[in-house]
Each structure stands twice: as C-alpha cells, then as structure tokens.
Amino acid sequence: MVRLSQKPSVRNNMAASGRHVGHCIQRNGRFVINNFEQLWGHRNFGWTSALRQQAIETNKESTENIVIPRKKTWSKEAVLEALASTVSRDPTAYHYQFQDDPYLSPRTSNEFKLYFLSQESGRSAAKYFINSNPKLFAKDFADPHIPCLMPETVSLRLEEVSEEALKERINLRKVSAAVDMYDQLVQAGTAVSMETTHDLLDLICLYGDRDPDQDGITEPQETQESGEGGKSRRIKLRRALDFLKATWKENNNAERIFNLLPEKDTRCYSALIRGMVKHEAYAKAFSLYTDMLNNRLTADVHIFNALILAAPRVREDYNEKWDLITELLTQMNQQKVQPTLMTFNNVLRALRRCGSLARTKALQTLTEMKAVGIAPSLASFNNVLGIFYRPGFSGQNNTNILQEIVSELDEKSFTCQDPDDVLFFTSAIKICLDCKDLELGYKINHLVEVGENWRMLGDPYQQSIYYGRFFNLLCLMENIDEVLKWYKQLIPSLYYPNALGLKELLQALDTDSRLDLLPCIWKDIRSVGHDNKLDLVEEVLTLMARDKHSPEVQESFAECALDIKKVFEGDRGRSGLEWSTPSLSHITSLLLRANMTEQAWEMLQLFKSNNRVPSVELLDNFLSALLSDGFPQRAVDLVQLSAAFCLPETPKLAKRTLTEFNLNEEQRAILSELESAGESSD
Description:
This protein is mostly helical. It is 61% helix and 1% strand. Among the domains are: 1-41; 148-214 and 243-296. The chain has helices spanning 8-21, 36-40, 48-65, 78-84, 109-132, 163-171, 175-187, 194-207, 227-245, 253-260, 266-278, 282-294, 301-310, 318-334, 341-351, 357-371, 378-388, 400-409, 424-435, 438-448, 460-477, 480-490, 499-511, 518-527, 534-546, 551-569, 581-593, 597-609, 616-629, 632-644, 650-660, 665-681, and strands at 25-27, 30-32. A hairpin with a 2-residue loop joins strand 1 and strand 2 (30-32).
C-alpha cells in the first residue's frame, strides 16, 4: 500500500481538486461549477464540452419550470392523522367508543348491545334537541368545522303558497305538508316545474305516503303504558305501524299526483315503480312498467334494478322466475340501458329465491359482470355465498366456492358500494366455522386486516359477531397457545365473549391439558359478567374437580372455588345462584385436596341447609382427609351427618371410623350405635 506522504504529486492534485470544487457558487437558485474544463481538462476525451452544454440547457429548463411555494398548506386534520398513525390498538382496553365513561363500559355482549343502542338513542335525542332549539347553538367553536353537528333547519319558514315553499317542505321531508302545498298550487292554477314534481314523487314513494319519524324519536303516546301488558301492547302497536308503513296503499297521493300530470316522463314512472317495489306492491309495479312501455317510453337503470329484485315475488316456479329476470335483462339490452353494479347484485339477490337453479346462474352472472367491465363487490360475493351455502349444508368440500372467492379478493382493499357489503365477512367466517376450516378462516381474517377492510365488518355489534365466530373456530381447531394469543388480542377491545365462546375456550383448555389456567379464565369470566350463568360456572367446577393435580395447582383451584362460592352466596349487589349437588360436591372436593378442611366442613353444612345429599364418595374422601389431619371428633360428626341424610353407607363409614381413628369411649359408643342401627335396618 502506497502512503500519500510518499506521493506528494498525488496529494497536491487532490488538494487542487478540493480548491476547484470549493469554487462552486450559487446563482439563481442553482449551483454552477467554475473552472470545469481546467479541473478535468487533462481527462477530456472529447465529450466533456458536450456534457457541459447539456447540463446548462437542462438547468435553464428546470429553472423556468420550478415554482417555489411560499408555505406548505396542511389540512386541518393532518395533525390528528399523523398522531393516529403513531399508535395502534390496545388489546387490553375497551373499544375507543366506550372510553368516555369507564364506569359504564360494557362487560358482556348484552351490555354491549344495550350501550350501543343507548348511544344511538342519545345521539338522536341530542340531534332532536339541537334542531328544535337552533338559537341556543348559533355559535360554532369547533375546529375543524363539522356541518353534521350543527343545527339543521327543521321548521318551515315560507308560509306563502309558492313553488319555493314546496321545495322547502320537500327538503325537510314533510310529506303531508308538501302534498298539501302541491294541491294548493294546482288549485291556484300555478304550474309546478317537472323537476320539483320529480322530487315530490320521490319523497312520497320513499316514505310510503307517510311522514317519517324524525331522527328515530318515538312519539310520547306510544310509551305511556307500563307493565308487561303495556310492553306487549306497545310491541303490537309498533308492528302494526311497521306493517302499515310497508304497505302500498291503493290510490295514494303518489298515484293521484301521477295521474294528474299532463305529461309523464321516465323519471315519474321510475319514482312510482321503485316505491311500489319498496313497499311490496310487486304486481302493481310490473303493471305500471307495462303501461310505461305502451306509452313508448324507455326505462332507466333504476326501474330495471327494482323490477329485477321484485321478479321472484311475482312468479312461483323457479324456472319462471329466472325467465322473467332474463327477459328484463334482454329488455335492458334492447333499450340500450347500461347495467350497474346494483343491477347484477339484484340479480344475485333474486337468485337466492330460485332454489337449486340459482347455483349455475349465479356463476354465469359473475362471468357476465366481468365481461361488461363491472367488478363484483363484497355484496356480490355475499349473495353467492347465500346461494351455495344454505342452512343445514354438510360435507368437507363445501368451502371450494369460498376459497375461490377469497383467492380472488386476496390483498385487495375495499370501499362500500352496496349496503350488503358489510355482511360478507360475517357470512364467510360462519361458513368456516360450520365446516371447521381453520386455514380458510385465517385467510379471511388476514383479508379483514388489509388496509381499512375492517370497516366492512359493519357497526361495532356486527364486528363483535364476526370476531366471536372467528374465536369459536380457533377454540375448536387451533392449539391452546394460539388460542390464548388470540384471546389476549381480541378481548375486550374487539370481542365481548358470550357464554358459548367461554365454554369453547374451556373445552380447548381441557383438550390440550391446560386446566391449570382455569383460575385465570375464571377471573375473566367474572370481569365480563358471565358469573351468573349456572351452566358455565358448573363447567368450570367440573373441570377443576375431575382430576388431581400438583399441590400448587390444587391450591389455586381451591382459591378459585372459594371465589365461586361467593357467587352462589351473592355478591356485588346481585342475588346468588341456586346451589346444586354437583356444585357443592365439586367445591368441597377442591377444598379437601388443598387441605382446607375447615372450609370443606362448612360446605358440608350447606348440603343440609339446601336439602342436598352428598355422595358416598365425597364422604369417604372427607373421612380420609380427616384421618390424615387427625380430627377424630370431626370424623364422628361426619358419620352423624351421613346418618342424618339416611345414607345406606352410614354403617360402613362408622365401621371405618372405629377401625382407623383413635377414639375415646364416648365417641366409640356413638359410632357403635350408628353401626348397629344401620345393620338392623338392613
């Protein structure tokens, strides 16, 4: 290796190069190197000058195109988005929507549903109060501004008879007021524009010629009755009202206004046909469609979408239903109406009512969608699942269609295009659970975690249903270590386990011989509020008392048994559970195995006070424990307790006690009398 100090020429050349590079100056926002040719002239092979000229031209062009902004403009949500990207979900915490009031945070699936409905009711009540008193909320301090949280105009401002007043009533969804205003305009001879007439027909047909419930607020007179009878009557009244709302009345305002129109266009027919289909007047919708064709009008895509959905309701035979759907699609093609995603989704929905014929036609529909360049949405695949996987199906190869769907959707991110998109993942994971296909279940859950696909699970209650089914599948098919890993990730941040899910977890612990974890699971059962389920509590006791374990495990089991005893006696302000013979026997056995003889003796007294009879095996084990502890008097009391229960094995217990225990004369006399009394009765 040659040192630089030994080559002064090399060192001097490097220093000179550094000086020339240091001659860089900044001009007009760009750097220019001076003495370029002098520095590299000795290495000029004929292309240096060309490169220099090209660099100068490039710099001129870039200088002309560069626009230096005065400042960076950020959206008002940028800081929140940046902060949100730095954190992830805490699996040990409740869902973020329940953290406003930790005291009211739900612990069970029922409490979760009640909390969720209460939140929606509270929002509706707050919105009703804000809209009813807009003057109290005139100032907006929110930054960024959120228009949906500001008061809406819900009161009528225009009282004169005019088209503007009619538009106001239509915008405020005042059906009756809008119809009255329209009638007044017609009676006054004032012409109403066709656009406003379209909006009025849309409003009437959407709400079935009735004023909608504003923001879900229930009328006071419907909730005045109390008691079980009042509750039953309210339910019947609500069902009757729902039935009336879902029925298309003959010659209603929509039909009356439609018949009064001097000219009817496609939009008018579209409003009525869609309203008839929505409110279950299917035959009437097809009759109106025929009338529209007779008037030489062409339908729009919304008319065909509605009629396709109604087609299975006007035919009985499966082939006739499909023939009608095919005829409608043919007419779409003849009238040059381009289908949409909703067109094909409605075809698939209609096929769910076409029996076994639907399977072949569903695949053909998907092929046709791709042929016309329309990508299926999650609702499309959900309808396919509904066609191929009906309740009660069985077999090991039934997940083939679902596997093909998941392979096609792999690593894709989705946005909601159809209201039924939120049903796909829940339906898919249910199929995996029914078929016990763990690998496919993992693929579906991975698809949920891609991007923001978790939003396609629906509302929080539907999300809980999805994760509950996924967890049940894990408990059935996965090893216990993986089950516990998912258990910590899902509960309680995403899933509120129900009694069935906890039973599946207990069975998984039993299958993999990890019953030592039962005390920890019991604490979770207590925390989520399922300690009032007698069958679940007895399942925990049965698993703990079935086999003998190490002293450490038996001690933890005994502590758990004492905590379960508090549940039966009643704590936390709740009434206790009813004692059963297995529950009393299991707790007593667990206490005996942990050498808690005094607590076990208290449990024996509970047998008598609750009119329960202990088993002979339990008394025999109790006698063995007393022998090891050296309690002769307690052994005598045990035999007397057996005699009080009139057990036929009392003489055997008395004889064993006389043989194995060191007794005084009085104790021997008592046991001898019990032994002879039992033998004489035999």
